[in-house]
What we know:
Phosphoenolpyruvate Carboxykinase, domain 3, 3 domains, alpha+beta, binds 3-[(carboxymethyl)sulfanyl]pyridine-2-carboxylic acid, single chain, 9-stranded mixed β-sheet, globular
Amino acid sequence: MTELNIVYGSLESLLPEVRAYVTSKANLCRPDRVHICDGSPAEFKLLIDAMERTRTIKKLDADRFENCWLVDTDVRDIARVESKTFICTKNVDDTVSETKYGALSKLGNWMSVESMDFLLTRKRFPNSMAGRTMYVIPFSMGPVGSPLSKIGIQLTDSAYVVTCTRIMTRVGKPVLDYLQSHPDTKFIRCLHSVGRSIGMMMSWPCDPDNTVIAHFPERNEICSYGSGYGGNSLLGKKCFALRIASTLARDEGWLAEHMLILGITNPEGKKKFIAAAFPSACGKTNLAMLQPTIPGWKVECVGDDIAWMRYDDEGNLRGINPEAGFFGVAPGTSMKTNPYCMKSLHKDTVFTNVAYTSDGGVYWEGMDEEVDLDSVHVTSWDGRHWTPESSFTAAHKNSRFCTPANHLETIDPAWEDPKGVPIAAILFGGRRPDTVPLVFESFDWTHGVFVGSSMRSMTTAASLEGVVKRVQHDPFAMRPFFGYNFGHYVQHWLDVGKKPNAKLPKIFHVNWFRTEKVPGAHDHNKRKERYLWPGFGENCRVLEWIFRRTDEEDVAIKSPIGYIPKPDALSLDGLHEPVKVDKLFAVHKDEWMNEVGKIREYFDEQIGSHMPKEIVTELDKLEERVKAM
Ligand code: O2Y
Ligand code: MN
């Protein structure tokens, strides 16, 4: 045991249990220095200085961007790595469902606790922080002290990770003070190292060949080695707030979900809150920050990625956003698609892997109205001169902005309410070019759980491995984020619906991405497709129908897959272009027979006997209804 070289803060500010954790991991990783974070402006300056010394960070033009920064990562460290992400439990069944026909689980990777402990403590972490500073970040997921919040302690050797964690969570002194006054609080242990990279002056140290992200739900611990990027390294986000929290939620009777929360107010001033689950990079941030096109309606944002929901004493399901910032996908975000977001990105924001303009600004695909490409030079995220004619993209497809939630003009007044907000509706959604109508409502809670279980969506670039475009199963939009056996997770959702006195939210499915073929148009031998629905701000028309349904208004008719809007019930006044309502809501027998087959195959191969019978019955009932069409 060697004496720790504390260069900022004091060990005495930590509870004995936290101190013991810091000491034991420092002895394993051997940092040169230890910095205990307080979240102060002085600390921010130290972090920026450290990143400027290693040329990790670049300041953007101060006239247009107040305290905004650009970071480019190593080209091999640009997204979550699902194949290297593990849940480690005593029994394999606690993590993954029964698979058949020799299939590997697509709903999580399991490794034994012993094997992972051996790998981490003998191979990965020894000396991994040598030459660097270990930062100790006390952080709260959710408002400090809320009964719905949880606390973590992250140890990391990346100043970038500390800087982003200060935006994405509540860090430092308020958390330490809370722990001192509540010494029995359980905290989640989060260890992160960018790894034993060759050459200490590299601007983005990482160890991609040896990356591993391990979760130990039975001892509330996360260990991440080798990557400094996003979900791999900001451990409060996917690792804690989804994988570990979903397990805590199962044990404590609540829900930790990959969902945005928005507040919607009608012209009469009546307000409701909606939670919505979409797979990664499918427009959750845009929906959460939507600017309605129908007069008199208002949408405000509680959160854009994660929802923790729990019943209150009156049986209302109440949700909080456990985060304090947005780590959103940059490409595609523009004044057209998300004006409120764009306006909030001019202050206190860290951009990662977007392109740099010669006038000290940023650029990404979709920003063509905002940046005059004739008057600036653009350097791509990976350092190449870029023009609109280039054969490569200016920004990486998974490039991100990291920005504080409270800078958003439409942040909901209740976004930090420690009680959470009452959830009136839950939406599931995906990118489906065919088969799935713009919106449908489930018949009841059990049918809604089936709808969540059978979600499918086109792949996106949010994961390193998810680059080939195809429709894949993504149940509850949680495919990469389950902390335990998916069959047990579905059972937990069914149980949540059976709570006595529960005022259950209605469950819906939405699909903004249905297309039709453009007659006669061909592109490289492929038929061209166009969207049937304008999306973005116009999605408030769908939210309006959902709002009315939560008031039990008689604006729906039964279809074989669920309730859909009665003819004329969806408000279409003022749309710039007419929409083909018949095509948007068509339910085709052949497509749904195919859908039923795909779902059955997936349930059988991936979940087997772990799938609750009630859900298999829902699938049987869907098949009967479709056959009878
Ligand atoms: O690690 C990354 O590439 C970011 S992952 C991410 C970040 C913010 C919100 N959602 C996601 C996601 O993968 O769902
Ligand atoms: Mn996400």
